[in-house]
Write a sequence for this structure.
């Protein structure tokens, strides 16, 4: 129930209809088969919009689900090599890295050293250079090979666009809960009904703002 005497009315297409008595705004909404929803209660005067509230809630839910469906994410994957890796294993690692990059993920390629292998870091550096050459059509090396502790690695950024990931059931449930909260917030705007509570014995109202006056509230 809208409890103010005057409201600034916005049409269903977003155009300003100006400031009018709440009872007149409600009558206009009923004539058009729409609802009168207070969308900016803190504005002066409050802003109310003519709309189909049921359709509005449906579109809100639809947009939320579409945004979740199109959400893109980039993850960081790792491929580990050994200084004495065989040719077959090396080629398998290369193919795996390419798969990650084609998904749009970043890849960390590392060489793990053991014991006396640390005395020959150039072997790892040559191995990473060779690996980078094999995947250059799918990724760009972001840093040069550096020895850190017992490992040496490079980071590779994909040149492919991240693929859309369908949300997991848990994420979908969370998104639905968020949508329900948004809908509840909208409902708190109070859809005007046939009864409008007018302030008791209002003092003589001042001059009404011009219809073209700009709203100080935010109109969705």
């Amino acid at each position: 129930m809208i409890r103010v005497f005057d409201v600034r009315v916005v049409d269903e297409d977003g155009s300003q209809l100006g400031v009018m008595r709440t009872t007149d705004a409600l009558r206009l909404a009923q004539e058009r088969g729409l609802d009168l929803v207070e969308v900016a209660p803190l504005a002066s005067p409050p802003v109310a919009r003519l709309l189909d509230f049921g359709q509005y809630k449906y579109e809100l839910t639809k947009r939320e689900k579409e945004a979740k469906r199109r959400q893109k994410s980039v993850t960081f994957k790792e491929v580990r090599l050994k200084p004495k890796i065989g040719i077959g294993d090396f080629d398998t690692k290369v193919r795996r890295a390419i798969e990650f990059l084609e998904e749009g993920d970043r890849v960390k390629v590392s060489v793990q050293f053991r014991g006396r292998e640390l005395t020959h870091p150039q072997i790892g550096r040559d191995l990473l250079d060779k690996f980078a050459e094999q995947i250059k059509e799918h990724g760009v090396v972001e840093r040069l090979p550096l020895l850190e502790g017992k490992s040496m690695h490079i980071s590779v950024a994909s040149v492919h666009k991240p693929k859309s990931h369908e949300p997991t059931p848990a994420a979908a449930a969370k998104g639905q809960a968020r949508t329900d909260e948004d809908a509840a917030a909208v409902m708190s705007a109070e859809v005007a009904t046939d009864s409008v509570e007018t302030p008791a014995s209002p003092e003589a109202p001042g001059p009404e703002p011009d219809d073209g006056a700009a709203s100080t509230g935010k109109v969705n």
Summary: The beta strands are 6-10, 16-21, 35-40, 47-51, 76-81, 106-112, 139-141, 146-148, 151-158.
